[in-house]
Amino acid sequence: MLCEGALMVAAAIILSYFKLQFLLAGSISFAMIPIIIFAVRRGAGWGVAAGVVYGTLKFILGAGYAWNWASILLDYSLAYGAVGFAGLCKGRKWGLPVGAFVGCFARFIVHFISGITIYKITAPTEVIGVTVANPWIYSLLYNISYMLPNTIIAIVAGLLLTAPLKKYMRGQL
Fold first, then answer.
1. The domain spanning residue 93 has which CATH number?
2. What is the distance between the alpha carbons of residues 155 and 76, in angstroms, rounded to a whole number?
3. Which interval of the chain is the signal sequence (predicted)?
């Protein structure tokens, strides 16, 4: 499982370099998909561990932005660790698409918390052409602007990969 997890983290790192930079600092990519697949195959514990490793490496390898150590933990290690909660759908018929939703929503919650605690000092500011002074609204708008497209991509990928990965997800390969 360690080797499989390392391969999925490596795949996620590679996919993270192919992204569409969106709005202020959020981006849209396929990077979460290998972590979601691994989590749904191996369970939430292994998925969270792989997500934490991926998020930490993403920051260390220079693809990250942080204001302080707390934002490193929240926006990278814990946020991508939360993607591993997709593993709660292990063994379910529609595990990949539902797991994608669960993992993406969990990541959104961590980013939202980061926005209202750490990045609240950036408010008032403009998000999607609207000036926002409330840190809660700012965090919601900012994080949903890139997490919603990422979530849709992950769910669609989960739907498309459910049949081709059926044996793999069951451990028959």
1. 1.10.1760.20
2. 21
3. none
